[in-house]
Specification:
The protein has 115 residues and is mainly β. 0% of the residues lie in helices and 48% in strands. 32% of the residues are buried.
Amino acid sequence: QVRFVESGGGHVQPGGSLRLSCAASGLSFDLSWMYWVRQAPGKGLEWIANIDQSGRYTYYVDSVKGRFTISRDNAKNTLTLQMNSLKSEDTAVYFCAKDPAGSIRGQGTQVTVSS
């Protein structure tokens, strides 16, 4: 079955950076659009970025545009999210997902941004 394993989360100060990774299995990764979604404390899932099968086309929610970069390595079935200039409002559990609603997603990795 489809399985996503996220890693790379942690605690960082505002303005810092983190790089999240997602190892995917059980799907034709190179044929799949891929998504990052997040869930902040007390809130629902929020789509933040996605990437087409080739990695050529990427899309971002306005709140992370210019700070986050989504990328993929189809040879390694890996999805990545580079997060720069982190803000306290980026604190959330981050998931890689097969759809923008996050209905098929991994267990997530916690990102906490605070001083």
